Amino acid sequence: MRNILLLKATNITYAEESPHLKERILNQSERLVLKDINLHLYKGQILGILGDSKRLGIVKEIFSKTLSPTSGTLQTEKSILSLDVIDHIHSDQTVGAFTRNFLIEFMRSGVTENIVDNLKYVDVYMRYRDRKLSELSRRDIALLIIELSKFVNVDIVIFSNLSQYLLPEDKTVLNSAIVYSQKRHRGVLLLEPKIENIKPYANYFMWLSHGQVRYEGGLKQGVERYERYLRERSSIKNIEEEETFDQSWKETMNEYALFKHNMERVRKKTIVTSENVNVKKLVISVVLFFIMVASAFVVMMDISFTEGDGGLPIINQSDDDEIITDNERTLYGLVTNDSLSFGVEEYSTLDIMPIKRVSRNSFNAVVQGGEYEVNPDDFIYFNPASLYQQSSLQILLPYTHSSFRDNYLFYSNYLNVSADALKESINYDFENNQRVEVSGIPITFHLNDDVVYGISFPSENTEELIEEYEMTTENPIFRLTRGFMILYREEERWLYINR
User: Fold this and answer.
1) Domain extents for the chain?
2) What's residue 250's pLDDT?
3) Name one GO molecular function term (predicted).
4) pTM of the prediction?
């Protein structure tokens, strides 16, 4: 089975960006966290990955497709189950409700109830099925998700640093789940910061040191190499030796800083007053400055030349509402009508449609190569290039319904995948060219050109959100690092778009 490839990662690199605009303008924002990670995961393989907890958390998110790498590619069409206690510690779902939702996400319709009946033999489920997950200890959450992993049909399982929550007597539960996964020919990623938690299970080993692959290969040789590294480290006698220990390896993670250091030495030696790198930064800064000034000018012009009609530009026109020829950009409208039809296409709430402004108070929907007049009251105007309020998904999660909040990592896996791949993986009640509605859960996947571009779901505590952000907009739009969150207040529903 080892020759059947489940997942392939090529040159996966991830860099953190600074939140400070000045550092981003001066090209000082990136700090490498992961660099050039390459791996292949095969059926029946248990790949143990050793590293620090922070970087392993990022590896988990990238491999479960909830975080995009800065560069590199991740190739897999297989189903992935990510097991991480941190994902569930704030959940308000009861254990019983969480278990049913967990099974519904991964199993065929009609199978769930049979599995729930079998859970009467799972002690942690029976003891806590009426308790909220947030009330459980991290150990109990770990035991629960480990047990549930044996009841679902997936190709790849990621065990993310679960050993830290388990007592010595609990290790048999983890061992049972890993052995079960191997017998079912699953691929297993075992992410652990301690080598002791990898040695009993893995049949292949990768060591991440300072975000780089320091070893990849057989477990025995890898353990020997790591233990030799620990012995060398334990021989350090003072602070100076500790600072220089492993220095050459650390420096390769900060090539930008090393390049800057070398350029500084050249400058001092040759008394050069300007360096190429500074010229580059200056040019970038000037260009960005003029872009910001131009953007601000456009925004001010839009504000200055508007009436009380939702911010549309005033245009000199005849009484017959003549068509504007100099503004034919295709923008987007998020449907607020329960049912809109254009030709053979049917749209419903929060489906996206390309629109074109044709006059001061008139818009056309651009559908299937044709244009259809649409009432401005039937959509939320959305321009991805606009300067929307900045936020993040983690900040906005408390204002989302538990159906999404408690399982957002799973649902986010299907963003930017094909509609066919989505429909093969979930149970759904309704589907058309614009949407796929999940069975039994108030969650809808929205489609554009047969690709999932967004997810809509109910909101919660929206008044607190509006008060916190002091927003006066009827339907607030938040810009995320790689997407948008749009709140349709009338229906109390979010649309999450990830690019």
Assistant:
1) 5-234, 389-498
2) 65
3) ATP hydrolysis activity
4) 0.54
- Report helix angle 276-304 to 255-270, nearest 10: 120
Q: In this structure, are strands 80-83 and 156-160 parallel, antiparallel, or unpaired?
A: parallel
Which of 59, 55, 85 lies closest to 72, judged by CA? 59
**Sign of the torsion formed by the C-alpha atoms of 34, 38, 43 and 44:** negative
Q: How far apart are CA 324 and CA 358, in angstroms?
A: 6
Positive or negative torsion for Cα 199, 202, 205, 211: negative
Residue 324 DSSP label: P
- Note the pLDDT of residue 445: 95
CA distance linking residue 243 with residue 400, whole number of Å = 46
Report the alpha-carbon distance of residue 277 to residue 282 in Å, rounded: 9
**Other CB atoms within 10 Å distance of the CB of residue 193:** 18
| 491: nearest Cα among 334, 336, 377 | 336
Longest dimension (CA), the chain: 87
Tell me the two tokens of residue 154.
């997936």
Superfamily assignment of 5-234 in CATH?
P-loop containing nucleotide triphosphate hydrolases (3.40.50.300)
* Residues paired with residue 451 on neighbouring β-strands, in sequence order: 418, 448
Q: pLDDT at position 3, please?
A: 63
Say which residues have a Cβ less than 8 Å from residue 420's Cβ, sequence separation at least 6: 450
Question: Hey, what long-range contacts does 317-322 have (CB within 8 A, 24 or more apart)?
Answer: 317/359, 317/360, 321/359, 321/360, 321/361, 321/362, 322/359
Residue 46, burial from CB neighbour count under 10 angstroms (0-12, 13-18, 19+): buried
Query: How many degrees, rounded to 5, is the angle at CA 299 between CA 380 and CA 363?
Result: 35
User: 439 with 429: CB under 8 angstroms?
Assistant: yes
How far is the C-alpha of 401 from the C-alpha of 457, rounded, in Å? 7
Neighbouring CB atoms inside 10 A of 184's CB total: 14
Q: What is the mean pLDDT of each run of 10 residues along the chain (499 residues)?
A: 80 80 57 89 94 93 92 92 92 90 78 78 90 94 94 93 92 92 94 94 93 92 91 75 65 51 44 52 77 74 46 37 44 87 86 82 82 87 84 88 86 89 88 90 91 93 83 87 90 90
